[in-house]
Design brief:
Blueprint (H helix, E strand, L loop, with lengths): L3 E7 L2 E10 L2 E6 L5 E4 L10 H11 L4 E5 L13 E10 L3 H8 L2 H12 L2 E6 L3 H11 L4 E2 L2 E2 L7 H8 L6 E8 L2 E10 L3 E9 L8 H15 L4 E6 L3 H9 L3 E11 L2 H8 L6 H8 L2 H19 L13
Parallel strand pairs: 4-5, 12-13
Antiparallel strand pairs: 1-2, 2-3, 3-4, 5-14, 6-13, 6-14, 7-10, 8-9, 10-11, 11-12
Amino acid sequence: MNIDKVRVYRQGKPVYLDAVTVGTTQVEIQGTLPRLAVIHNEWINSAHDPAEITRVLRQERLADIFAFWELFPDGSARREFPMERVAISALPIKSHEEWLARQIRKEVRKNIKKAARRGVEIRRVDFDDTLVSGMTRIFNEATVRQGRPFWHYGKTTEDVKEEMGQDLARSQFIGAYFEGELIGFYKLIIERCFAQPVMSLSMIRHRDKYADTALISEAVRFCAEHRLRYMTYGEWRRDHHKEFLESHGFTRMLIPRYYFPLSYRGAVCLKLKTPKGLKEVARQLLPESVLSAALRLRSRWYQSALRPPKHAGLDTLEG
């Protein structure tokens, strides 16, 4: 069987993974312990013949576990495979007016108005060199974001153009501007009945202008206009991510994800309920309070160790 290579981005960097095509389905191989076989671009591509894919992967000894899920928003479990429910962050959308009036918290509505009063202008924009230049400035504003080294810091305009220029045929870019300068942006990928921000970022030094909330508001308006039923944000988040999503109307939705062992090692990992590897073991064994404390300590260390000199012109670091 022919082994191909597919390019994916991990922690902001391009990575080339082994992949095989079974029928019309491309399957990529991730990780080492265990080796996990997943559908390439699984948010939009389904496993057309899971039984045949499983047979081929086992025969060729390419992976330890085959994992796939029903395409969002299908929440029904219809396969004869071992299954667990995966929590997805999803925002049901009827109209922009419904979202403003009933789905978000009072402070979010206030922040949308504050963004406008403080001079933030929201535009739907084309992907061009001007937008790429603005994105690059935002990427290179701070070495640390959300308590860890920022993956995109140090990228050139060429790097940003290559990464953000993927899937343009089904993408929508939204920009937040202050005095003509791009201070935040959204890249939405448009799927069958939903849209997903694959990149959302704003300048830390303009955080008082609530560009993030203004961008979400425009993204909801776009989805409503195009009759997209949901906006998703990947798997359900914890800590301050969870608070942010809930305040903006996102809810926890469960989607069936199937795991089938292809080797003895895969069977052991599934028995231990750790199909994603050793990092998942730590998450399951440690209490939430311990994990949160560890994340706060890590954030402080990164801010101290990676803080640039004052003359670098960075006003603050996010953590």
